[in-house]
Amino acid sequence: MSAGSNVMSQFFQSDFFYYFRQNKTIIVSFSIFLLMVIAAIFAPWVAPHDPYDLASIDILDSQLPPSWMSGGDGRFWLGTDEQGRGIFSTIIYGLRTSLAIGLLAVILQMVVGIVVGLFAAYYGGKLDSLLMRFADIQLSFSTLMVAIVISAIFKTLFGAQFYSEYALLLLVLIIGIAEWPQYARTIRSSALSEKKKEYVEAAKVMGFKPLRIMFRHILPNCLSPILVISTVQIANAIMSEAALSFLGLGMPAEKPSLGSLISNGFDYIQSGEWWITLFPGLVLVLVVLIINLLGDWLRDVFNPKLFKG
């Protein structure tokens, strides 16, 4: 039997998979999330229209209602926006952008937070106090406030055109910078308890370098809380992007994300084109809800004292 088959066999026999099979809510949530991820990855093939292709967009199709309403067009199931783009297609592409920002921002948060947390816990003393006080100062401000300040600075320094062109990368950087203290504090707490264990003392006696001890010995034993935090942080990052886009500091109108789609359609609610904002808003709520449900379940599974089956 191959190594891959052994791993799969062990996974299907694990308590983790058993608890997953017993929870129908989580099965449904994970299935919906998986479908969303697949649709986002294969957006060019799933979406009926390409919202980036200006040649396929007709301004005469703008603000059409959903196909089941009077005046609707069968080509556009959920109607069109002010530019004539199909709402269903823009939601799929917007979901792709929002998930990419959420995932990449969390990876950045994780890298910075893990490094800071491990160094603070391992070396302690003045370095620990300095790093944690810096994290505390940043945590005293709301994530959105920090993100707004940083995004405003980027726009001022590089200009609106540069910001619009590199909006996705800049948002990843902005949200990543704003949220790393969550990881740093959690990793520091876990690493402090691991640092006192015998295997760390044995590694020091054997002459291993601090970096090897931190990243090859201590870090693997701190992965459970990292996984739980990451699911919640992805939802937070997506919400932060949506809030920034709604305030005009996120993705531009020509590069749809769920947040920018909601923002673009907000001005048309009073004139009756409610579908431009409503459908992207519902998808955003669904994504955040599902990710939070998965995160709460993971937290309970990895903490037997909280888990109730």
Automatic annotation (TrEMBL):
KW Translocase (keyword) present: no
GO cellular component, one term: plasma membrane
Membrane topology: Multi-pass membrane protein
Record localization: Cell membrane
An annotated GO BP: transmembrane transport
Gene3D superfamilies linked to this entry: MetI-like
Domain ABC transmembrane type-1 residue range list: 95-295
Keywords on record: Cell membrane, Membrane, Transmembrane, Transmembrane helix, Transport
InterPro entries for this protein: BP-dependent_transpt_permease (IPR050366), MetI-like (IPR000515), MetI-like_sf (IPR035906), OppC_N (IPR025966)
Coiled-coil regions, chain positions: none
Transmembrane segments: 26-47, 99-122, 134-154, 160-180, 218-239, 274-295
Pfam families cross-referenced by the UniProt entry: BPD_transp_1 (PF00528), OppC_N (PF12911)
Domain of life: Bacteria
Family: Belongs to the binding-protein-dependent transport system permease family.
Protein name: ABC transporter permease subunit
Organism: Ostreibacterium oceani
